[in-house]
Amino acid sequence: MPDGRITVRADGRIRRLAFDNQARLNALNTHMWSALPGLVRAAEDDDEVRVLIVTGAGDKAFSAGADISEFDQARSGTASQNYDRLNNEAFDALSSCAKPTVAAIRGYCFGGGLELALCCDLRVAGAGAQFSIPAVKLGIGFNARWIRPLLNAVTPAVAKEILFTGGRYGAVDAARMGLVGRVVGDELVGETARELALTIAANAPLSVVAAKRGVDELARNPAAPDWTDLERITQACFDSADYEEGRRAFAEKRAPMFKGR
Ligand code: COA
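A: This is the predicted complex of the input protein with coenzyme A.
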C-alpha cells in the first residue's frame, strides 16, 4: 500500500475527494496521479452526485505538488514523459469533468497541486493559503499543456510572473491575481466550499451544465465556438421536466425540486 492516497467521501449530492499524503504535505505520487481520473469519472457516472469538492487532508496543505522524492525514478530521462502523461490525464479528467468542481484550499497549494486547483471550476482559499509554481526552481520543464488552466484564471502577464519567478503568493495576492475566487478564514474553508457546492447542487443540473459548457467552450475556442452543440445543450434545458418544475415552484412560492432531466 503506497503512502499517499486520495480519499473519497459521499455527502448527499456532493462527492469530496481529498489528497492524503500528510507527511509530505499531500504531495501527489504516481499512485495518486493515476487514481484521480477514475475517481472523477466515478463521480461523473453517479447520478446522485451533482458537485465535486477537491481538497487536501488535514490543515497544512491542499497539496505541495508532485512528490519530489519519486523524481529520481519516476521523472527522469524518458520516464518523465510517462510522468507527464499521468499528470495530463489527471488534469484533463478534472478540467473536462461534466459536473461542477470546487477546490477547497488550506495551506500550501504548489506546483501540480495548484494546477489541479486551477482545473476546478471554482476555488475557495483560506487566508493562510500559499500558492506557487516552483518548476523553475527545480529545473522542471513546465509542460505547455498546463498553461491553459493557469491562463483561464490569470492574465498572460501574471502567468509569466508566476512561472518566471517561481515566487510564493499569499491568499490575498492570489485573489487579486485571479488564482482564487474567494478568501475566507482558514477554519471556514471546508464549510464555505460545502455551502457553495450545496447552492450549486440545489439548482437545475442541466442549466448548470449548460453554463459550464458554455463558459469552457467560449474560453477555449472564442473565435469559433461550437454553437450547434451549445444550442443543443441550451435547448435540452427548455425541453426538460426541470424547466416545468422551476416555473411551477416559482408560481407555488416553494423551492424547486430538480431531477436533472
Ligand atoms: N514532494 C515530496 N515531499 C515533500 C514535498 C513534495 N512536493 N513538499 C514537501 N515535502 C515533504 C518535505 O520533504 C518534508 O518531509 P520531511 O519531514 O521528511 O523532511 C515534509 O514534506 C514537510 O515539508 P517541509 O519542507 O519541512 O515544510 P515547510 O513548511 O518548511 O515548507 C514547502 C513547505 C511547501 C514550502 C516546502 O516543503 C517545499 O518547497 N516543497 C516543495 C514544493 C514544490 O517544489 N512542489 C512542486 C513539485 S514539482
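Residues 204-251 form one domain. The first strand starts at residue 5 and ends at 11.
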